[in-house]
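#dry-run=false #mode=assembly
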Amino acid sequence: MINRIYPFLLMASITWACGSKTEKVNTEDYGEPAAQTEKVEPAAPVSEADMIAQGAALVAKNDCTTCHHQTDKLIGPSHKEVAEKYAFTPENVTMLAEKIIKGGTGNWGQIPMTPHPNISEPDAEKMAMYVLSLDGEKESK
Ligand code: HEC
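#status=ok
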């Protein structure tokens, strides 16, 4: 279980870290052991597209589709509308992942979204990434 989740955590932190810094690793630092330790993390083979695909599968597998359709409003807003409302940024992935886990109301009306305490944070983040990708936007780093 830990082994399955860890690469995603790792990817997520790498992605997030890159989001906050635009600075690239200077190739001249390669000889320096400290810089190397940071750099040579095993590149987890999980691309943004993979995470979005996994998020789509998780949305299909959970109860989300009871209240959300990809393009039509049901009890909740369509996931495409959600994508159009929010920019695809690491901050919004975190914010929506939290909402998926905790539930809540007020952003779209008075109908509450049910909490999903059994969904892990990495899974919720993948679902948020999937939702945010639905207007064709890529995550802005
Ligand atoms: C019982 C119905 C229901 C279920 C089940 C449900 N949602 Fe929602 N969802 C809602 C409602 C209602 C809202 C609007 C909440 C608001 O106004 O802040 C919402 C809002 C959202 C938002 C936007 C949040 C925001 O603050 O703008 C996302 C993303 C989302 N849902 C994803 C999911 C995912 C993923 C699942 C499955 C794990 C899911 N929902 C399951 C009803 C539901």
